[in-house]
Amino acid sequence: MEALIFILKYLPVISNMVWIQVPGGSYEVLKLGRSKNGYKKFKKTLTIKDRIFKLRYVSLSKRAVKFQYYFVIMTYLGYLCLIVLLILWIVSLFTHNFWNMFGVFQYIKCYTFELPAFIFTCLNIGRDKYGRGLEWKFIDEYS
Length: 143
Known about the structure:
Elements: H1 2-14, H2 18-31, H3 36-45, H4 48-53, H5 57-60, H6 65-95, H7 98-124, E1 125-127, E2 134-136, H8 137-142
Antiparallel strand pairs: 1-2
Helix pairs in contact: 2-6, 6-7
């Protein structure tokens, strides 16, 4: 029982790792079905606005479109979390209780967004074919 309480207490610290994998996943989906040089030329055509907001990423994906939906939605949820954090910081300038509000925000963010995404990420990431690192499993399915 104490181990479960320990895990639930420190899970928000660990679950932030999901935000490292999400942006790379959307680029990996865009690479599918394109040659190396074709992807380089294609990436140069994307504007900064497209890269930040990923507006056309779903329509530009040739394969694994459902995965691209996941990555785009998770990107927007990440932006939403940053906006909420900024609002909390601005509110705390007047109330002087940022750490109390941040703790509650961290737990809500972890258990509603990051934990399901962390489980999804763990289930869909595996060793690459050379055994050197990690890559998304759908890359092998579509290559």
